[in-house]
Amino acid sequence: MVYVIAILIVIALSAFFYFKFLIFRQVYRIEDVPHCTYTLVLGAGLNHKGLPTDILADRVLTAVKLFKLKKTDFLIMSGAGSKGDYCEPDSMKKLAIKNSVPEKVILEDLSGNSTLRSLIIFKNCYPDKRAIIITQKFHLFRSLSLATLIHIRVVGVPAELYQFSFLKKFIWNIREFIALPYNLLILFVLFIRKFYD
Questions:
Q1: Can you list the domains of the chain with their CATH numbers?
Q2: What is the DSSP string of 139-156?
Q3: How does the average pLDDT of the chain come out, rounded?
């Protein structure tokens, strides 16, 4: 029995790392990423002044750089936007405009209060259904995995303009360890509901 469990664990880990290898083949340096019509910038919170947190500013400024390199035509700012004055996409948009991105190329998704929701909204709203996802490296695996599972053609560019402490990175990685199974469970429930509707 112990051997069977050990073999199953080895198979599961092998499948996971192979899938991870396939997903990370979709990750590009900003200079090398192929052109996509849309770039999806995932939200990551605002500070007490209503400005993007350092992690979110890193994502937005990476998107700005991508746009200036003519790697994309539209920036989709996706985040929570329905809590009174709290509006991530609006704050993200202002930061991009401040850095010389024309307002007309910035689209806002005010309902993207989670990675999975942002991806589902993108899939439903944008006919091209191909995008560059911008987020930090620790978050790219989950973002690209979920996008692949719901059949969005995506590539990823890591936001790496800012340097973060070891502690922050550790906390974020623990969060991802929990978030991926949770998102997979939600996807499974959505699939079952759709199947039986």
A1: 28-196 (3.40.50.620)
A2: HHHHHHHHHHHTT-EEEE
A3: 83
